Amino acid sequence: MMESLVQAIEGGAINTWVLSTYWLWPLLEIIHFIGLSLLLGSMLIVDLRLAGYLRQIDIMSMHRLLPWAAIGFAMNMVSGFLFFFGDPGRYSINIGFRIKMVLVLIAGLNVLVFALKINPLIGNWEPHGDTPGLAKAIAWISLSTWTGVLLLGRLIPYIGTG
Q1: pLDDT tens-digit profile of 74-104?
Q2: Residue extents of the structural domains in the chain
Q3: What is the per-residue pLDDT across 43-74, written as a single tens digit (0 to 9) for each?
Q4: Cα angle at 33 between 113 and 42, to 5 degrees?
């Protein structure tokens, strides 16, 4: 299945564009770095607050960081897809990339649980109070998965390239 996806991408318009535009890959690296900074910087504060730390930050101030995390994620998703389309053969066989994608999926499911179970209740919490157990669990899952995504992303060039 992965092999047929790689064959479908290679030689296609996006693959050709990424490979033939000499300035695009460095620009994608910059976009990916800025997106990662927005995503992980915001999520670090959000997750630490949800985990019960940083109580000096009121819960609604923490909540206002979520759009910045979403913008960072969108930047990474677009640049990441273009990275994959630029070199699908290398990424598709890379164990670091595959594990990273599993962690992104877990993080996405964690966001869904947050959106359905925690987000509707945040307005009722004490601004500087402790957070419920489910919020803490979601925070630690988020911190763990995004840390793994960061580390594996940096290791992709060095591990599991066949």
Answers
A1: 999 999 999 999 999 999 999 999 999 999 9
A2: 2-155
A3: 999 999 999 999 999 999 999 999 999 999 99
A4: 40
Cβ atoms 28, 90 nearer than 8 A:
no
With 0-12 / 13-18 / 19 or more C-beta atoms within 10 angstroms meaning exposed / middle / buried, residue 35 is buried
C-alpha span between 143 and 40 (Å, rounded): 9
CB-side exposure of 160: number of CA atoms within 13 Å?
15
What's the mean pLDDT when you consider all of the chain?
94
Q: Which element (helix H / strand E) includes 117?
A: none
Contacts for 28-35: CB closer than 8 Å, 24+ residues apart: 28/79, 28/82, 28/83, 28/86, 29/79, 31/75, 31/78, 31/79, 32/75, 32/76, 32/79, 32/80, 32/83, 34/72, 34/75, 35/71, 35/72, 35/73, 35/74, 35/75, 35/76, 35/79
Q: What is the pTM of this model?
A: 0.90
Tally of residues, the chain = 162
Q: Report helix angle 24-50 to 133-155, nearest 10.
A: 160
One-letter amino acid of 46: V
Torsions phi, psi for 60 (to 5 deg): -75, -30
